[in-house]
Amino acid sequence: MPAGELNRSVIARAALTLVDREGLGALSMRRLGAELGVEGMAVYHHFANKDALLDEVVTEVLRQTAPEPTGDWRADVRALSHAFRNTVRAHPALLMVTMTRPVDTPETAAFREAQYAALTAAGLSGGALLDAHRTWGSYLVGYLVVEYQAEHSGYRDSDWTPTRRDGFPLTAGLSPYQAGRGWDEQFDVGLDLVLDGISALRGRSR
């Protein structure tokens, strides 16, 4: 690609493709330049460093992520949750980017504002809104980390089921339920619990 045809969006999409294919560790300005058919220094004309590039990669993804609000706060929280999960499952390396460094761009701010708006529609404000947002976010990130580790560990889902039951009656009693749900269903079950907790905070500002 001629260097004159490069722009921030083209570079970010190429970086996303590389990271999706080979992981975050494969990304460097030199390697990205090679993917684009230009010298690595050509990338620096658009991004001062790798962190700035990663900000733009996250931005590129989030441009397509936030669903339109419906006016039903539970439906909106659910839609935002599924949008985030679908994005991370499509681009799992980006979870580590958002977990290990702040990303503050207009697009990330807009996605966060959409989350705040859904919680405001639930009747939350002030400290209660922040508490709900942090709890919701912790559930999403925690679930996605566990889901990713399980799916990439080389073990089957059944391998994670406790097998030591003798002398542990509560564990034994839960055995019939252990394999009853897949990842999609369990995500919704947990999300419903979070939504119920948010509902209990309605009308509070703290």
Which properties best describe this structure?
206 residues, mainly alpha, Arc Repressor Mutant, subunit A, Tetracycline Repressor, domain 2, 2 domains, 11 helices, flat
- Output the CATH topology of the largest domain: Tetracycline Repressor, domain 2
Order of helices and strands: HHHHHHHHHHH
What is the residue-mean pLDDT, rounded to a whole number? 88
Total DSSP helices: 11
Question: If you had to describe this structure to a student in words, what would you say it looks like?
Answer:
The protein has 206 residues and is mostly helical. The chain has 2 domains: 1-64, Orthogonal Bundle (Arc Repressor Mutant, subunit A); 69-205, Tetracycline Repressor, domain 2, CATH 1.10.357.10. 66% of the residues lie in helices and 0% in strands. It has helices spanning 8-22, 29-36, 40-44, 50-62, 73-90, 93-100, 106-121, 126-151, 169-173, 175-178, 183-200. The protein is flat. The termini are far apart. The mean pLDDT is 88.
In summary, what is this structure?
The chain is mainly α and 206 residues long. The protein is built from eleven helices and no strands. α8 (126-151) runs antiparallel to α11.
Write the layout of secondary structure elements.
Layout: H1 8-22, H2 29-36, H3 40-44, H4 50-62, H5 73-90, H6 93-100, H7 106-121, H8 126-151, H9 169-173, H10 175-178, H11 183-200
